[in-house]
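Protein in question quoted for reference:
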Amino acid sequence: MAVINKPPGITVSSNAFKNIFNALPFNLTESTATDKLFKPTPVHRLDNQTSGILLIAKTKTAQIELGNQFMNQTIQKKYCTIVIGEVLNKQVITTTIENKNAETSFEIIKVVKSLKYNNLTCLKVAPKTGRTHQIRIHLSSIGHPILGDKLYGNQETLHKGKGLFLAATEITLLHPKTFTPLHFKIDVPNKFNSLLIREKRRWNTYNK
């Protein structure tokens, strides 16, 4: 198996030639196992605009076992995001998505004053289920759409040229062959901290 840091703006797999699936053979060492896959294959998805940790299976064994772990909800993923407005309390959102159970919990990292948005809140988010666009839908449903979300926000939530402020930063799982517990964590993208610092500085300058 492999773990990659997917950049924003690239689809995991699609009809377009430029996607993660097509890029993997040129960027990963080939497996020597007898059950190696023809091509390394992502075992879950991240939205086009979402960056961060993505699990890749190189063998059939890994593909099946990691798929089972996702199905049994034993893989834990955490995301960092910036949402519009001041979020006051951590909570668990259980709003159904397309009539299917969905659960997302989050905790508050920091709240920053903003001239344009009044407040921005940085959250650490943990989805228990894996519905399409789950985090984006759930946060929008409580009145705090993700900054840069064109689909579940509105024109006022866009931050020109900066994309979606959602990144998969942590994952915990069992190795698909040895079942050893594994934990991977990456830094939050620079644009997150840069934005929060800039918004706070602008607010302080304007409100002297």
Q: What stands out?
A: The CA atoms of residues 104 and 183 lie 20 Å apart. The chain has a mean pLDDT of 94. The first strand starts at residue 2 and ends at 6. The radius of gyration is 18 Å.
